[in-house]
Every structure is written in C-alpha cells, then in structure tokens.
Amino acid sequence: MKITQWLVLPLALLLFIGCGGKVKENPKYNYITADETAKLMREDASKLFLVDIQEKADFTEEHLKGAISTYAYPVKTEEEKARLGALLADIKPHQKVIIICPRGGGGADRAYDFYLDKGVKKENLLTLKGGQFEWPRDKIKDVLDK
Questions:
Q1: For residue 100, which of 78, 145, 67 has the smallest C-alpha distance?
Q2: What share of the chain in percent tops pLDDT 90?
Q3: Do strands 125-128 and 96-100 pair parallel, antiparallel, or not at all (unpaired)?
Q4: Prediction pTM value
Q5: 34-54 tens-digit pLDDT
Q6: What is the DSSP string of 81-120?
Q7: Exposure winner among 73, 118, 129, 132, fewest CB in 10 A?
Q8: Alpha-carbon gap, residue 19 to 111, rounded angstroms
Q9: Is residue 73 very low, low, confident or very high in pLDDT (cuts 50, 70, 90)?
C-alpha cells in the first residue's frame, strides 16, 4: 500500500465516523423536539408547514405525515434553494414552519437561514431537533409515513 493510501484511509474513516455524531444546537436557531412536533401534528396539523429537505431515498423510506418533500439537502446550490423558494407562496403567516433535515444540522441551518432571509418570521421558524434520523420510532409512530 502506498503512503498516500495509509493517510487517506484513516482520514476517510474519521470523516465517516464524524458524520454519525450528534448535532450541536446553535443558539441562533429555534428548535422543536419530536414530542412537541408530534403533539402539534395531532392537535392541528393545519397550523404547521413541514418542510422536509431529506434526500429522495430517505424521504421515501420515512417522513412525517404531511411533510412536503423538497430534496433540497444539503441546501448549498441555487437549485436546492430554489426548491425551498417554490414553497414560499404556500406558507401561511400563522403557520409554524418546521424544517426536517436528516440530522438537524448544517442543511437545516441553511434552510432556516434561507427562509429567514425570505421573510418567514423567526418565531415561526423551527428545526426538528436531531432531524429525521433521531425520531423516536419506538415511541412515536402515529405521525410517521413510510
């Protein structure tokens, strides 16, 4: 094995392991837990606007009932942002906009910033804490769609 392979392999392994960790919350953003989200969905789903940015395969495998798929993850390109922008006209001023990301990290932050810049009120903008991957499936199943 070449010396570069010895260096690249551990680095790739470190990057892979690093992707599976918990996302640290940023005080700049508003978060909502799975329990709080499920409660709001059961009480009156019309008060919510669920923006799911997961990739297509993940969304197809599982998503929240009523979530709108955008396949905008990781929200870095203009095309991905345009998918978020296409939903702006459908968001009602009284609705809580919940961003559903695979883990609730960088992609969610970029989607949050996008909607904030486009005029969605900060008090109505939330990120699902832990994203879809940390949803407590064994505890909260009734609001999931597969």
A1: 67
A2: 81
A3: parallel
A4: 0.84
A5: 999 999 999 999 999 999 999
A6: HHHHHTTGGG--TT-EEEEE-SSSSHHHHHHHHHHHHTT-
A7: 118
A8: 19
A9: very high
The two tokens of residue 53 are 């940015």
CA distances, 48 to each of 7, 54, 57, 139 (Å): 48, 18, 24, 21
Q: Six-digit token pair at 115?
A: 């909607």
The single-letter DSSP state of residue 76 is: -
* Two structure tokens written together for 119: 């005029």
Cα-based angle 59, 65, 69 (whole degrees, multiple of 5): 40
Residues with Cβ within 8 Å of 22's Cβ and at least 6 positions away in sequence, in order, are: 130
What confidence score (pLDDT) does residue 141 get?
Answer: 95
Task: Look up residue 60 and give its amino acid.
Answer: T
For tokens 């094995």, the residue is: 1
Q: Which domains does the chain have, with CATH numbers?
A: 23-145 (3.40.250.10)
Q: How confident is the model at residue 22 (pLDDT cuts 50, 70, 90)?
A: low
User: Which two structure tokens, joined as six digits, stand for 61?
Assistant: 């495998």
128 pairs with which residues across the strands? Answer: 32
CB atoms within 10 A of CB 40: 18
How many residues are recorded in the chain? Answer: 146
